[in-house]
Amino acid sequence: MRLTWVQPEDLLPHEIAASRDEGRDVDAIAEKWSVAGGDLTAPVSGASATPASPRLRALATRLLDEADALPAAGSTEEPEELADVRSTWPATWSLPAGPAAYDRVHGAWLGRAVGCLLGKPVEKIPRHGIREILTATGRWPLRDWFTAQGLPADVAARWPWNRRSAPTSLAENIHGMPEDDDLNFALLALRVLETHGRDFTSADVAQAWLDWLPGGRVFTAERVAYRNLLLGLVPPATARRHNPFREWIGAQIRTDVYGWVNPGRPDLAAELAWRDATVSHVRGGVYGAIWVAAMAAAATVASEVDEVLDAGESVLPPGSRFAATVREARALGARHDDWETVVDELYARHGHLHWVHVRNNAALVAAVLAYGRGELERSICAVVSGGWDTDSTGATVGAVTGALTGASALPARWVAPLRGRLASSIAGFDGIGFDELATRTLALAEPAAGPAVVGSHGSAGVDAATAEGSTA
Q1: What is the DSSP letter of 6?
Q2: Residue partners of 50: CB distance under 8 A and separation at least 6
Q3: 162-219 residue pLDDT tens
Q4: Which of 110, 146, 400, 408 is least buried, going by the fewest C-beta atoms within 10 A?
């Protein structure tokens, strides 16, 4: 047995890549590792082919400490305090006021599950491999569930399905929504809100992980943060020690519920998402979380997808790389009717990033929402066929389009295989119905009572210290 995503020799190559992406000079660290015989190639799926010797492992730990101690290279355009981010938000929000309808929230839960399930069997398979599978089974372009029926043996050997997901996510074996971290975190957010209310802190989120979330069900930044919690660190330090995944996609998949309970209020949704995200992420990783939460807040009350995208962009630091990425991708998706042309351009711009990084996946989501114009099937099929983190991007896109559409108008051929239920290893949620989830979410929702006015403590009625989830 070898644990993935936490071994120092596996983390260090990722740290070198992450630091360079942030603009920090890690050439000396890379040289020390290479001279000692360490592999600079970052493992794709959490662990390199063979474990390091005790000597190399000890060196990797020391070099991770060195990297953590390097001066921050972050720009003032990428603030790390909520107050600084919030200062850029608009004074008012133009989204419709009033409560979200049950049908819209139910649609959001169902859409999230459908998009996630569509992407599960091909998670980790590159874009060209996905296309080869679909072509070989007569399903290109993607418009239905993946299937192993009729797949030639050589194609199957070249592009093996996701090992964990294939038994429950191919067309021939779907019997309800199987467990997935993209749904587990939504359930956990619901539990945090039901337990602690809207004043929950980052420490409450961290404790919920320890109490309710099995360690084997978390990956990348979440697994590192989980380890850091067990070492005695508290947020936000849990996001910073030996965590090269701090700007990956993990926090972005956790925050839809914070939007659904704040219909029409992207600001309040983003504040809740910030507290959750900073347990494991920084900067772009956190921006992805508040972006999705703000879009979720809009999706249950908006009438078109552009309102949703506007709401998401409105909470982002305007000069950040993340904001520039989603603006450019949105414009690209809106400009082209040929989806392959859009994806070609996204890969040209962001193909150097790991397949679980936040910016490339956010770009894919922004582009497909603009391209899909709010229609669920067109959107989830396009985003999954685009590759990278297929189940996570499918879930986010499915949640937005499902909320815009409403459960009653979602195509039966996508919804029926879910059988109205969800599997989970989180106690109390295994086998729960999506209808019950929608009801419980609505019970926590506070409708927009008119335009939010930002004052000296941020959004109306929210204390700044509480909103930032300080755990000092």
Answers
A1: -
A2: none
A3: 999 999 999 999 999 999 999 999 999 999 999 999 999 999 999 999 999 999 999 9
A4: 408
- Residue 268 sits at the vertex; the CA angle it makes with 267 and 269, to the nearest 5 degrees, is 90
Report d(CA 16, CA 152) in Å as an integer: 39
Same domain flag for 58 and 183: no
Contact between 117 and 131 under an 8 Å Cβ cutoff? The reply is: no
What dihedral angle (degrees, nearest 10) is formed by the CA atoms of 175, 180, 182, 184?
Answer: 100
Q: Any idea how long the chain is?
A: 472
Q: Decide if 248 contacts 22 (C-beta within 8 A).
A: no
Q: What is the pTM of this model?
A: 0.94
Q: For position 447, what pLDDT does the model report?
A: 65
Query: Rounded distance, CA 323 to CA 309, Å?
Result: 11
Q: Is 115 helix (H, G, I), strand (E, B) or coil?
A: helix
Does the structure show a pLDDT above 80 at 284?
yes
Output the furthest CA–CA distance in the chain (Å, rounded). 63
Crossing angle of helices 358-372 and 376-385, rounded to 10°: 150
- Is 196 part of a structural domain of the chain? yes
263 — phi, psi (to 5°)?
Answer: -60, 130
Q: What are phi and psi of 142, to 5 degrees?
A: -60, 125
CA angle 379, 249, 4 (to 5 degrees): 125
For residue 431, what is the domain's CATH number?
1.10.4080.10
Summarize the chain as % helix, strand, coil (round to 5): 60, 0, 40
DSSP string, 350-400: HTTS-TTBHHHHHHHHHHHHHHHTT-HHHHHHHHHHT-SSHHHHHHHHHHH
What are the backbone dihedrals phi and psi of residue 196, each rounded to the nearest 5 degrees, phi first?
A: -110, -10
Tell me if 411 is assigned to some domain: yes
For every residue of 122-180, DSSP letters joined together read: GTT--HHHHHHHHHHTT-PSP-S----TT--HHHHHHSPPPTTTHHHHSGGG--SB---
One domain, residues 15 and 86 = no
Is the previous residue joined to 317 through a cis bond, with omega within 30 degrees of 0? no
C-alpha span between 472 and 461 (Å, rounded)? 22
Residue pLDDT, tens place only, 39-95: 999 888 888 767 899 999 999 999 999 999 999 876 789 999 999 999 999 988 889
Q: Quick one: pLDDT at residue 435?
A: 98
Kindly tell me the sign of the dihedral angle through the C-alpha atoms of 3, 213, 260, 93. negative
Element (H, E) at 433: strand 432-433
The owner of tokens 């060195």 is 66
* Bridge partner residues of 357 (DSSP): 248
